[in-house]
Design a protein that fits this description.
345 residues; alpha/beta; Rossmann fold; Dihydrodipicolinate Reductase, domain 2; 2 domains; seven-stranded mixed beta sheet
Amino acid sequence: MVKVSVIGATGYTGQELVRMLARHPAVEIAGLGTQSYAQKKYSEVYPHFRGVVDLVCSEPGDPALIEKADVVFLALPHGLSGTLVAQIHAQGKKVVDLGADFRLKNRAVYKEWYKTEAPGEALLAQAVYGLPEVKREMIKKATIIANPGCYPTTVILALYPLLKEKLLDPRTIIIDSKSGVSGAGRGLNVASLYSEVNEDLKVYGLPRHRHTPEIEQELSAIAGSAIMVNFTPHLVPLTRGMMSTIYCVPETPDADKIAEVYRSYYAHEPFVRLYPPWEFPHTKWVHGTNYCDLGFSLDERTGRLVIISVIDNLTKGASGQAIQNMNLLCGLDETMGLPKLALFP
């Protein structure tokens, strides 16, 4: 059994982690850390865990959270992971960081976008960006995993095969993304109140959403040249779910060739599903699963390619992907403990 601790266990991504880890056949939850609910049973914080996870929560700094675990998950706001990762790494344990601190390799870029200092160069150099479909073999050998952001997951998986095969003009990428409210976290925020969000649709983080440099960094690495994108995120009145609609100009007008490239890259990927031409995925179809569903349309009239990419922002966009990474780190079946059937209706 792999012993795991979750630090930041009572936020939405932490709760989603605990929900799936509690049912994982090869995992034992060794500890749960939380600043807000230390010394409370987890099932007191989330009553639906009663009789399933009744562990008493610890302070995030409790050394037992690291000592008892083989793998530590960090589900913390940005700026808080660096010190903990250093401690975990020094004890020879593995860590999956769901926050932003280890995603950007350039410390100056991180400081510019997040307004705080990045972790040290030595730790950053060892961190692997944890998108299994792109970096599976590197993940298997890593000790520090930077779990990708939710928006970047939708975008990178949509564009990876086409950029790798030089089938897109990289100067033409426009990303229009929409997220459910759970992406904002569980903390009290007027902008996330039901009466504020219901019956509303709004843009936020424009023009400098913090996921922009992460998207550009990873797309540039895939393409082998610098890429700059237009990225506009929106908040929609859903609890969970995310859709990115991506507009770009292909180098070929052949829809069959584009479909074949997608199939060649993703036919054997357990968590990427490609829809046939003119059929487009819904967020409802991935609700509660670790899938990224993709569809595309080649508009012959405008010459533009439109790609639709959907995930559940809390699973493939965060906690499910973190467990997928843990499975790879620990030599387990990559799909173990991860849901494949959506919650419906």
